[in-house]
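Hey team,

Filing this mostly as a record. A colleague (T.K.) asked me to run one chain through the structure pipeline before their review meeting, and I want the input and output archived in the tracker in case anyone asks later how it was produced. No errors, nothing strange. Just documentation.

Input sequence:
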Amino acid sequence: MAPDVPPTPARRGVGGRGDVAAVLGVVVLVVAAAVVGRGLIRDGVQILLPFPPLLASWEPHLGWGTPVALVVAVLVVARGPELAARMRWGGLMAAAGAAALAWTVSLALVDGWQRGVVERLASEEEYLHDVPRVAGVLEMLRTFSDHILTDQPVHWTTHVGAHPPGVFLLFVWLDRIGLGGGEPAGLFVMLVGSSACVAVAVGLQALGAEDVARRALPFGVLLPGAVWIGVSADGMFAGVLAWGVALLAVATRGSAGSAVAAVTGGVLLGYALYLSYGLVLGGLLPLAVLAVTRAWRVAGLAVLGAAAVVAAFTAAGFWWFTGFAHVRVIYAASIAETRPYSFFVWANLAALAFAIGPAVVAGLRRAASDAAGPRELPAAAVLLTVAGLAAIVLADLSGMSKAEVERIWLPFALWLVLPCALLPREHVRYWLAAQASLALAVNHLLLTVW
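Output structure:
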């Protein structure tokens, strides 16, 4: 396991102009995507993006969450780096989790409680719409694939049919225990999704990169992608995948309970496969952990945990590959049919920029520069960042993610925050302010679907 190597004073402040140039380059990309996207709309191409490259509409507004979001942003910008550096680890994780949840919920409440939280997962296209159809869980799983294709009288609504049944099953379970409806579902999604930054930090600390975890943590808390964590199920997917990776990393330390951590991590990683078909690319992240640690016994236990999940869904009657084959059919016949690949293969990156923010762009630029010189990031941070990037590239090239990636790629995007640890300490607050400003601008000027 590579030791954590903090930045050297000589290199700490180098490259500020390069950071700004990288951000300006991404701004040009965003503007180009907006101009070309509007041109496609004028030409009659159906891309279903009122505000390209985002699925959003121009609607400046304020809400109950506005003052809370401003207070959270100011506190994290002003005190976050200092507290992340000196707080005891357990207390820091609790504080970061609370701050990330407050940030996510307050951003959602900018759109109001009803529109921003309650209705997000309860529309005619969303998961909660089909919950009353489920008479029995086993029957639902056994016949799930029979109702994916939309050329039949009875089929699942858009989001239910386009995903494996694991995510729908979670909302059914919530309903069964008395937490049905948009309020509990929205809060559950935000709770799990906002915890992802803590999971990333826990994983890094377990891999011997605590200094990187501490320096990157405030950027994880104020990730602009929180706009879509509150409320989209993809935010929850990010949390489940991140905790699966984190528990696998914890298990590699070989301490008491490592076997339990390995199996539990494997169960979460296996369950992630049944949250979204695209999360199969998330397998690159646990592979990065194993590449650093060579903990093959832990890998075996994690595989057993994941295999148990696969076996359970298969025994219940749902075969993952059949579901995926059906989804490819309905995806090809959906709005994706008129969304040109030649545009979205690069415009997707412009949409992603809204979720990761300028600080992550600058951090990635420094990481790329770092690769050509003295290494400042430990191997674990490097490989996890590369795994997140690789997942995004593969998803982009596949053509199965044309637009809406500001939410769809959240499970991979949050790992791109790690190189923010390379940003000069004297500039950290400016970059954090830039992250918060982007999220606040998006949420107050645009009305997002999620």
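Quick notes for T.K.: The mean pLDDT is 94. The radius of gyration is 21 Å.
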